[in-house]
Each structure stands twice: as structure tokens, then as C-alpha cells.
Amino acid sequence: MKTIYILWLRQLKRYFRSKSRIFGSLAQPLLFLLALGFGFGPVFQKAGEGNYLQFLVPGIIGMSIIFTSIFSGMEIIWDRQFGFLKETLVAPVPRFNIMIGRTFGGATVATMQGILVLILSLFLGFRPVSFMLILPAILMMFLSALLFTALGTAIASKLEDMQGFQMIINFLVMPLFFLSGAIFPLSGSGALAIVARFDPLSYSIDSLRVLLSNINNFGFGIDILVLSAVTLIFLGLGSYFFSKVQI
Amino acid sequence: MSIISVKNLTKKFGNKENAVLAVDDISFEVEKGEIFAFLGPNGAGKSTTIKMLTTILSVTSGTLVLDGNDVKKNPNEVRHSFGIVFQDPSLDDELTAYENMEFHGVLYGVPKKVRRERIEQLMQFVELWDRKDSLVKEFSGGMKRRLEIARGLLHHPKILFLDEPTLGLDPQTRNHMWDYLRELNKTEGITVFFTTHYMEEAEKIAGRIAIIDHGKIIMSGTSEELKKNTETKTLEEAFLKLTGKDIRKDEAGTIDRMRMGRRMWTRK
Ligand SMILES: Nc1ncnc2c1ncn2[C@@H]1O[C@H](COP(=O)(O)OP(=O)(O)O)[C@@H](O)[C@H]1O
Ligand SMILES: [Mg+2]
In chain B, which residues touch A (CB < 8 A)? Predict the structure, then answer.
């Protein structure tokens, strides 16, 4: 337990120490909120879909979470490059605990990033349906963050060096984001709606929309079910691959 | 009974066409409480052997037993019996010196009270106590090395591996460190397994020495035995006689590569 805690703490310390990382990773969501929110808002309204910002904010929170989570999970590559990974790999602690500590730390960081985006959006005019539902929304953010951090860990355990990183962002994270219905409604988008069903981020964003904006696509129960199941699978996969890591 | 037992250990890197035979069928034993040195030119296979012994590198073939546990079958048990100071950097640059020590102490289950005391004592010992709250990234290479040594001594394992521990240390710190280790070896019976390039270090500290080159152990024994068998007067002469005089290039020196990597990937 103590070992899981110290690994969790390490991720948090690293996060809080790099202010540029905190603010740097807020730039992208802010840009999306401003450009899309105010650019598409009127069109969206005319199409009879309601207030676009109410629709968009959960999507952008989801975006911020997937990017931060995958990045946190993939920090293993940095640790390998700079040598610190060895220190954890020889410790008399089951690798499973190490992976869990790291992953929960990364997920906590990503959740905080999601909360920051939520706060930011309040200034832009976003209004959650009920302040009572913010806490459950944060829990859903954490579940999604856990899912994607575990995925990042699983991938990074298999990568030898930094080269693969950009590829993962371009060929995995970007598609997951754009196909998730983060920035447009899935209802009535035909084939895309089918593809989105295979994207876990769709369920993350849907659950946040239910709680924050009272908009629902799959249904909240399905969201929780899918997210929990996929998280367990990725945690299993991540800890298996991590247990096989070599220097 | 020997605490480290290595039989027909082999390690191949890469695939068939361009395979590198880093460790070539070596066997040796280290007795409990012994101080044992691996002496060999760059690229001899010293670090590779240590990495396999410490469970972070897979074994191509052979058997390794540490404190009664098979390294391949029970890596988790094996990790309870040793501590290691790596040749390459292994600190977290984004944490302070103290946090790096604390992290290690918790991972190795050193009780809080002992941990606090020992961290202070060891950091005083390597003269970093007044810098304990500085981030490691602000440290010079030598300071980092000293911190790694202090960290390696924080818990008292049955076996301590030290891979070129004194490289880049000034002679004062070096002597200091060996005195400390010999004391630990005497009082707690800790087995010490180290590698070095410094002949006088091996001669002075190690009970037994194995000379390794091109992945093979060429000769092993006490420094007296080595000198006698090679009919030389000093360990250095014995070493040169056994390994030849040509200079080995340190293949893609890991540390340089990492320093370069760091420059390219400095995080924002
Ligand atoms: N990860 C690796 N991939 C390929 N070759 C390696 C790797 N690590 C070490 N080697 C090679 O194995 C040999 C032994 O290296 P090493 O054990 O580091 O030597 P030493 O520690 O004795 O200087 C060298 O030829 C080195 O280039
Ligand atoms: Mg070496």
C-alpha cells in the first residue's frame, strides 16, 4: 500500500512541479473551446441542436483527459530513457503494485486537468445542469482517466524508445478523439455513429454530457458498464506488459 | 554455501544475422560475505551479467541462483535479496535529492525511523545534506553519482551490486565509500559484487577477482593467485597479459547517448 502511495505521489509531484506542463496543456482545450464554441455555436443553434457550448464542454474535457492520460501512461518511456525506470524495476515490490501506483497517479493528474478545463469553461459561459452532479462527473473523469492511463502504460511498456510516441498521438489519440463525438453529435451521423461505438472515449464523453449538460446518447448505465469493463481490461493488459518490461 | 551461483550463463542481443554475444557461457560462484570483483575492459559483458542477475534483463540460456532463488523462476523473491548501484544514471531528476532517497527507502520497506536517520547520515556522508532539497536536475554529474551511492546504501540487502560505482568520483569520496562498504561487509555480512576499471581498487578491496573479456571469464581467484598464474608482478600486468593491450572503444557510451537524448527531449 505504501509503495503504491509513493509511486502515486511521485506522479503528482512531477505534475505540480512543471507549471509549464499544466498551463501548456490548457492551451489546446481553450483554443478548441473558443474557436469551435464561438465559431460553430450559431450554426449549431440554427440546426436546432441547442446551445453548442453546453454540448462541447464535456467533449473538450474528454479530450483533455485522453491526452493527459495517455501522456502520463507513456511517461514510462521517459523514465526508461533517463534511467529511473531501472530503480523501480529492481525494487522488492510486485510490478503490479508499481504499475497500479503509476497509473493511479497519472489518472489523478489527468482528472485534475479535466477539472481545470471545467473551471475554465465556466468563465466562457458554460453552465452545468446541477452543481450536485459535479462530483459524480469528476468520478467519471477519473474512471476515464484510469482507462486511458492504463492504455498508455500498456503501449509504452511495448515501445523501446521515443520514436513511437508521435505515432501513437497521430494514429491513436487523434482518431479516438475525432471519432468520439466530442465536437459533433453522433445521432444522425450514420456510419460515424457506428464507429464511435467502438471508441471508449465516446462513452466517457457521453457520461459527462449526461451529468453536466443533460444530453444523452448511449445511456448512463451503458457508459459506466463499458468504461468499467474496458478499464479492467486495459489495467490487466497494462500490468501484464509492464511485468515483462526489460531494460 | 554460495549466495550467488551462475551456471553456463549466456546472453545474445539482437536477431540471428547481427547477434551480439555479450555474455558467453560463463559460470562462477560467490560465497556469502565475500567481496567479489568483476574486472574487464569496456564491452566485456560485466553490466550485462549484472542486469541478468538483478532480473531486469532476460537470460538467453543458463541458470542463475541468488540466495537460493532461481532468477528466471522467482524474480520477485530474488528482488528481496539485493540492492544495486547502476552504472548508468537512475535518479529522478524532477525530484529533490531527499525525495529520491525517501522514495527508495519506502520502496525497500525501510522503517520510517531508520529511514530518516540513515538518509541524514548517508547524505552527510556524501556531503549532499545541505543540498537535500535541491532538484536532482540541478546537480553535477559527480553529485548525482554520490547521491546514487548513498541511495544504494540506504537499505541493507544480503547482496549489494555495484556497477563501476567509483567512476567519476574523486579519490576522497572513493576511499570513503570503500571504507563504509568494508565496514558493512564486516558488521552485517553483506556480500559485495562490484565491477571496476581501477586495478588498485580491485586489489585492495576484493577477496576474489574474475577477469572477464569478450563475454568470457578468462581467469578468477585472489589477486595473489592471478599474479602467480600469469607470472606477473602487479594485477595490472596480469590484467593486460590476459586481455591484451588494444584499446576497446566504449560502444555507443550509454551515458553520452542519454545526455544527447536529454537535450533532444527536454520536456516543456
Ligand atoms: N541492449 C543492448 N543491445 C545490444 N547490445 C548490447 C546491449 N547492451 C549491451 N550490449 C553489448 O553487449 C556487450 C557487453 O556490454 P556490457 O555488458 O555493457 O559491457 P561492460 O559493462 O563490461 O562494459 C557490448 O558489446 C555491448 O555493445
Ligand atoms: Mg558496464
Answer: 51, 54-58, 76, 79-80, 82, 84, 86, 88-95, 99, 102-104, 106-109, 135, 258, 261-262, 265, 267-268
Bridging pattern class, strands B82-85 and B159-163:
parallel
Distance from CA of A142 to the nearest CA of B (A): 25
Q: And the C-alpha cell for A145?
A: 482517466
Those residues of chain B that have pLDDT short of 70 are 245, 247, 249-268
Mutate to test the pocket of ligand 1, among B18, B21, B52, B251 (most ligand atoms within 8 A of CB): B251
Q: For residue B65, what are the β-bridge partners?
A: B5, B70
Mutate to test the interface with A, among B107, B136, B255 (most CBs of A within 10 A): B107
Residues A186-210: pLDDT tens digits?
877 788 889 999 999 999 999 999 9
User: Structural domain of residue B142, as residue ranges?
Assistant: 2-266
State the sign of the Cα–Cα–Cα–Cα dihedral A33, A36, A38, A42.
negative
Beta bridge partners of B38: B195, B210
3-state DSSP of chain B: CEEEEEEEEEEEECCCCCCEEEEEEEEEEEECCCEEEEECCCCCCHHHHHHHHCCCCCCCEEEEEECCEECCCCHHHHCCCEEEECCCCCCCCCCEHHHHHHHHHHHCCCCHHHHHHHHHHHHHHCCCHHHCCCEHHHCCHHHHHHHHHHHHCCCCCCEEEEECCCCCCCHHHHHHHHHHHHHHHHHHCCEEEEEECCHHHHHHHCCEEEEEECCEEEEEECHHHHHHHHCCCCHHHHHHHHHCCCCCCCCCCHHHHHHHHHHHHCCC
B106/A6 Cβ within 8 A: yes
Interface contact flag, B268 A20, Cβ < 8 Å: yes
* pLDDT value at residue B256: 45
Q: Determine contact, residues A151/A173, Cβ cutoff 8 Å.
A: no
What residues of chain A lie within 8 A of the CB of B267, using their CB? 18, 21, 78
Domain count, chain A: 1
Of B79, B99, B109, the CB nearest to A90: B79
ipTM of the complex: 0.91
Q: Taking CB atoms and an 8 Å cutoff, what residues of chain A touch B88?
A: 83, 86
Q: What is the CATH number of the domain that holds B231?
A: 3.40.50.300
Residues of B in contact with A10 (CB under 8 A): 92, 95, 103
Q: Choose among A83, A130, A95: nearest CA to A7.
A: A95
Q: Rounded to the nearest 5°, which phi and psi values hold at B76?
A: -65, -45
User: Which residues span the domain enclosing A190?
Assistant: 2-243
Please list every residue in chain B whose beta carbon sits closer than 8 Å to the beta carbon of residue A93. Answer: 79, 107
Domain count, chain B: 1
pTM given for the model? 0.91
